[in-house]
Amino acid sequence: MNTSHTPSDPHTSLDLTPQEPHPNHDRGLEFDLSTLMSRRSLGMFFGVGGAAVALSACTPGGSSSTASTSASSATATAAETATASAAATSSAATATPTLTRAIAECGVEIPKETAGPYPGDGSNGPNVLEASGVVRQGITSSFGTSSTKAEGVPLTITLTLLDNANGCVPLAGAAVYAWHCDRSGKYSMYDAGLANENYLRGVQEADANGQVTFTSIFPAAYSGRWPHIHFEVFESMSNATSAGQVLAVSQIALTQAACDDVYATPGYEASVANMKRTTLKSDNVFGDDGGIYQLATMTGSAAAGYTAGLNVTV
To answer: What's the CA gap between 55 and 65, in Å, rounded?
Structure first.
């Protein structure tokens, strides 16, 4: 659902009224189930191939050899087509296995969530989206008047955007604004001492595969919330950098195994106690469904850094 940022009602129909108390953070909305990806193309292929063979075998007035030849020809053509199709599919899967898997799993739209009170998108105070330098892949450092770097365990975040209304094709050319807290649980642009910082915020344009990637640091677990990353999806880069129409606002949930590993390292001490007081089920954003459609796929280690991936169907 499209919506726009305005001074009075920044996200008209997404219930983005600031409710994230930090502690007592955002409130999630019910997600909508959508139909699974259509497989009509597969059925059409077998239907056409089967019809061709049957037609050639039953052609009136034709000799048995002619019918046999026609049938063999049709069968061979169908087989060649199948081979070529399989080869193309295999090639695509080899080239972009993550995208192929994402499309196969597409069908449920990402749950819509609040942006919380620290979005930095102009809907609640400062607006980083119109600042020169916000379009970037690496978001660990501030830009503009500051170069302060947020310290922490490295985290690479990749989102695959899929268009549910058009058969789950990649949303190439769309844009994502991502932001999250630092390892102390604080947000740049808002928390005390960070008003002049804008680290851990950035915008990226989706590539031909509908993917955007950010390099960042692992966020903290602060009181009242499960560890998470906020993001907004825009139809285009121009919409993103002008705080225009929003296609979706949601959050990524990080896995407990990765969190426990990271929070055992220096700098994340406060997160250990906070994790013990919160679960995905008790979290006031992910709790309605346990974060099933927002839980990232994660690999790595605290020593080497982590990667987090999520399919985002809009």
So the answer is: 15
Task: Dihedral sign for Cα 19, 24, 29, 33, please.
Answer: positive
Cross-strand partners of 246: 3, 234
> Encoding tokens for residue 39?
């497989």
- Give the domain 105-313 fold: Protocatechuate 3,4-Dioxygenase, subunit A (2.60.130)
Looking at residue 7, the DSSP 8-state letter turns out to be S
Distance set, CA 172 to CA 105, 168, 169, 255 (Å): 18, 12, 9, 28
Handedness of CA 218, 274, 258, 22 (dihedral sign): negative
Dig out the tokens for 237 from the structure. 């880069």
The partner residues of 230 in beta bridges, in order of sequence, read 179, 251
**pLDDT tens per residue across all 314 residues of the chain:** 333 333 333 333 333 333 444 444 444 433 333 333 332 233 333 333 333 333 333 333 333 444 444 444 444 444 444 433 333 333 333 335 567 767 776 778 999 999 999 999 999 999 999 999 999 999 999 999 999 999 999 999 999 999 999 999 999 999 999 999 999 999 999 999 999 999 999 999 999 999 999 999 999 999 999 999 999 999 999 999 988 889 999 999 999 999 999 999 999 999 999 999 999 999 999 999 999 999 999 999 999 999 999 999 99
Identify the three-state secondary structure at position 211.
strand
Pairing of the two strands 305-313 and 154-163: parallel
Q: How far apart are the first and last CA of the chain?
A: 8
Domain range annotation of the chain: 40-95, 105-313
